[in-house]
Design a protein that fits this description.
Elements: E1 11-12, E2 15-16, H1 20-39, H2 44-72, E3 75-76, H3 78-102
Parallel strand pairs: 2-3
Antiparallel strand pairs: 1-2
Helix pairs in contact: 1-2, 1-3, 2-3
């Protein structure tokens, strides 16, 4: 690795890992939102807002880390991509749980003739 970087800790094994802690924080936030959706009844709009914002921020981070890694001539982190996929799946699951919990039950009609 070149020694012209002022801060060496953002490259490990020739991979750009500076934004990995941000992905981990977003994953922890996603897990927290999933637990809240499992325990309580959360409104759909609030769950949709946080899920979409979290996915958008994670996608932008993944995109920017790829641009930075390309400009520096190093590889992108496979861990960042895996964390993004985990965030996406957890947020989709959270949204699905919130929709299922808020679904109004349609009363069954009896078959009286």
């Amino acid at each position: 690795m070149d020694s012209h970087f002022t801060y060496q800790h953002f490259i490990k094994n020739n991979d750009f890992v500076l934004l990995n802690p941000v992905f981990i924080v977003l994953l922890l936030f996603s897990i927290l939102l999933l637990v809240i959706a499992l325990i309580k009844k959360v409104s759909i709009w609030l769950c949709t807002l946080f899920a979409s914002l979290t996915i958008i921020v994670a996608a932008q981070l993944l995109w920017f880390s790829g641009i930075i890694a390309d400009e520096l001539g190093i590889g992108g982190s496979a861990q960042s991509f895996s964390l993004f996929i985990g965030i996406f799946i957890i947020q989709c699951l959270t949204l699905w749980i919130a929709i299922k919990k808020n679904a109004k039950k349609v009363p069954q009609r009896s078959a009286d003739f």
